[in-house]
Design goal:
single chain; about 300 residues; alpha/beta; 2 domains; 4-stranded parallel beta sheet; 4-stranded antiparallel beta sheet; 10 helices
């Protein structure tokens, strides 16, 4: 199975779609972008159609949000079982596809970053006003000359890896995609490139913004607390409002903020964070959490 390949840009025109076409055309010829899904149902239909057609890839171009459980399942499950349109029949399809997605400051569901191979493209200048002497056009990318050169370059990487004894890069790891990361990462590291699966310590743009904003708020609110004190859902809501990140954590159309935030907080029970004073704490351990109140339990002897 293959991870999601994400190309995230800081503005339009930095070359996100061009990069994906450059990846795909040597093997698959002229690329086909899938319609931009505007809802979970539309995305589900795109994924189902790709599975039924036996498509080798799905290209979601210029999307804004990938917070989708269906996409998580489509990428990480060995099989996908879509329903045939107009029938009650379901077809079991083996996972042989790879999903590509591009977007500016792309927001992701909390599980997607660890299932993705991420590329960031950014420029400080206005991308649409750049003067490029020899632009990489579709005519060039779809040509036989480019295909020959791209395939030759990839073959050279593989030959070099084989000549080196096919060494394994132990740091090339990606959960759920171990075989893919082991092969691709080892080939590229042997050629002298950086490990493409190295952990991203600080996302410069996009990613799980909701998760980061919520974690930052919890760490800040825990700073003044002592051992055994609690945080309530209302206090965390106020902390997010004060930081100006409530919209990052909850959807704009959310009607019941307390209920929606409570659902997210329950998933964090038992997780360990570090507050603004450098103290490690366990948030809302399950045995002590009740309703909308979450006990903050400091570890390593930190009590106040």
């Amino acid at each position: 199975m293959r991870p999601l390949v994400l190309v995230i840009g800081n503005q339009p025109g930095v070359g996100k779609s061009t990069l994906v076409r450059a990846i795909l055309t040597p093997t698959h010829g002229e690329t086909e972008e899938d319609s931009k899904p505007k809802s979970d149902e539309e995305l589900r239909n795109v994924l189902d159609a790709a599975a039924l057609a036996g498509a080798p890839y799905v290209f979601l171009d210029d999307v804004h949000n990938l917070a989708s459980n269906d996409l998580n399942h489509f990428i990480s499950s060995p099989t996908h079982t879509p329903r045939v349109k107009g029938q009650s029949t379901r077809v079991k399809c083996a996972n042989k596809w790879q999903v590509f997605a591009t977007g500016n400051h792309l927001k992701l569901a909390e599980d997607l970053p660890r299932r993705s191979l991420v590329v960031f493209l950014a420029t400080g200048d206005k991308a649409s006003e750049r003067e490029i002497a020899d632009p990489m056009t579709n005519t060039f990318l779809f040509s036989a000359d480019y295909r020959a050169k791209a395939c030759a370059a990839l073959l050279a990487l593989l030959r070099h890896w084989c000549a080196c004894g096919m060494p394994t890069c132990r740091e090339a790891r990606l959960s759920s995609f171990e075989a893919y990361a082991d092969l691709v990462g080892s080939v590229f590291v042997a050629a002298g490139f950086a490990n493409p699966f190295a952990p991203i310590v600080d996302w410069p743009m996009g990613g799980d913004e909701a998760g980061r904003a919520l974690e930052t708020a919890l760490c800040k609110l825990a700073g003044p607390l002592v051992q055994g004190e609690e945080l309530t859902t209302d206090e965390i809501l106020d902390g997010l409002r004060e930081a100006g990140t409530l919209d990052d954590v909850l959807p704009f159309e959310c009607r019941d903020e307390r209920k929606a935030l409570g659902h997210k907080l329950r998933k964090l029970r038992g997780r360990v964070f570090t507050d603004t004073r450098g103290r490690r704490f366990e948030f809302g351990r399950r045995a002590a959490a009740s309703g909308s109140r979450y006990v903050v339990h400091f570890l390593d002897g930190a009590t106040g």
